[in-house]
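Honest question from a wet-lab person: if I give you the sequences of every part of a complex, can you actually get the arrangement of the whole thing, not just the pieces? Trying it with mine:
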Amino acid sequence: ALTIGIVGLPNVGKSTLFNALTKNDVLAANYPFATIEPNIGVVNLPDERLGVLAGIFGSERILPATVSFVDIAGIVRGASEGEGLGNQFLANIREADAIAQVVRGFVDDDVVHVDGVINPQNDLETINAELMLADLQTIEKALPRYEKEVKRKTIDGAVLEAANAAKDALERGQLLSTSGIDLTPVRELGLLTAKPYIYVFNVDESVLTDDARKAELEALVAPAKAVFLDAKIESELIDLDPADAAELLEATGQTESGLDQLARIGFATLGLQTYLTAGPKESRAWTIPQGAKAPQAAGVIHTDFEKGFIKAEVISFDDLVATGSVAEARAKGKARLEGKDYVMQDGDVVEFRFNV
Ligand code: GDP
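Yes, you can. This is the full assembly:
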């Protein structure tokens, strides 16, 4: 499964946030037989359509898609100079498909800031500098080998070109994710700043409703996406029943919890989308890459569905709601039979036909 790694300076609220991520009961519901690593937190991707489908089909249960987060640990200034970022840290962060960087915005004299002052911009620059230095070291280590291999013609010249272009960009202080360089030839290097980033501003309640301040912080990280949350409130929300949680959200001027936002934006950042299946047993969302075709989508349910794929009967969620039932949707010509080249759309309600 795709995972998002959580990084940030010490004392910014990573553990508080991560505790909220691991305290929910998603694990028990979705992974009854799996052993989950202690440093993995899983959250449901909120999807109101599932409740609607469960109503139409009389489903016994609802299974949303999920997003997984890995707690990667803190980064300190100068880490890349001294002993480096640490092998375990590097191994963990290389494996993550996207990075959520937690940035401290909350003010609390009882919680020491590593630099003694709350300055999100400084913090972002510190972390980015460490990650860029780590990438530079990785590239500089690989370059002599690439040069040799290109001379011997055992690898393509594009590899060396991409590595040199990346090195230049990093030396100019640019994150590789925004450099526009095609890094496919050097994918094996697992470059840290080439990954998609989400920025999580852990702020005081007052900032959650301060749109001007949020816009300032958003501008610091654009075009990457920003999520605003109060990690302390998140850890309280997770312990409340839905009605009380809704009340607390409203009282703090929010319409959606930070964890829900994080799941939604994380999911999109990973390039994922969902399609839906529904029946009396369950209404369920299935995770596929954006642009996936029907057989690949079927394969997420079972590999046999992909191998024996014949057709997909697809009704868009909106058409299903408008007609009220599968039978009515069919009668009104809203149920389409799609073949193996069909590109799945978000919110397709699907039943696969396959050979066994
Ligand atoms: P980490 O080092 O990044 O994992 O940070 P922690 O999650 O351990 O948080 C460090 C301290 O800051 C703890 O005492 C937390 O209770 C506190 N803290 C975390 N988030 C918030 C927040 O949103 N507001 C306030 N006031 N304190 C927070």
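Two things worth pointing out. Residues 8, 10-16, 74, 106, 108, 111, 202, 230-232 surround guanosine-5'-diphosphate (CB under 6 Å). Residues 27-36 have pLDDT under 50 and may be disordered.
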